[in-house]
Fold this sequence. Notes:
Elements: H1 3-10, H2 20-37, H3 65-83, E1 89-93, E2 99-105, E3 109-118, H4 122-131, E4 143-152, E5 156-163, E6 171-181, E7 185-192, E8 205-206, E9 208-209, E10 212-219, E11 222-232, E12 234-235, H5 242-270
Parallel strand pairs: 6-8
Antiparallel strand pairs: 1-2, 2-3, 3-11, 4-5, 5-6, 6-7, 7-10, 9-12, 10-11
Helix pairs in contact: 2-3
Amino acid sequence: MLPAVVKLCCGISYPHLRSTAVLQCTAVAVIGQEFTSLQRPRAQIDSSFDETKPKRVTAEPNDPLFHMQLGQQAMLKALRILEDKDGWEVRFKESNGDVICSKVIPGARTVFRLEAVLEASVDELYDLLFARVEEMHKWNPQIQHIKVLKHIGPKTIVTHEVSERNLFGQRDFLSVRHSCKQKSRVYLGGGAIKLEKFPPQAGFVRAEDGPTCIIIEAVNGESRKSHFTWLLNMDVKCWLPQSIVDRTLPQKQLDFTSYLRRRLTASTTLG
């Protein structure tokens, strides 16, 4: 959870958790270490991050580091959105404790932050949401399929995702996804990209996701519980009024979390 933001905007406080700023600084430090370890003579990357300035992507598009840097940059931008406490408004408060807040960011796009506690370990959620992302359609009926097009090391992937037909029609997404995995916390982030070899597909509208991120953090003293924070930032590229889009997207978050809980329950039942 992000207690500083949630306490201010949603009226919920989890005093045993670190503040959003600490979570963000931790992620910045981890990604900075990644950049340091990936330095090359042709792509010198400054490992001292300034949180107020997005880092320039220094690798060339044909360099394997290029998409990794895009994923890292998108993650940091998403964390900055979460860290900014101003402007958040409550959209939903569910009886199970799930809370969704929203705010308008520069560019007039509305983003949504979901906060939940899930009955699963950090490793289990990382496995379902990143390591086995191609299997997500098996438990999430909102997705037709996800295909990993490229692996860039163990922490970055390029994916093509196709949604099932819904209110917006059928959408596809071309994204880079990056992960930072620690002992008790995982950051998953990324955003939309373009590939010359994978242009928009016939029959679909190419929507854009990101910068976005998910933070999964273990609940103190609970090996089978995790705090789950998800920033949804999406341009669905549709003709519907923005007011309808802004009502529909947070409901999609609640639906996703419901499907995820069913999957976790099934895993527990099957042992």
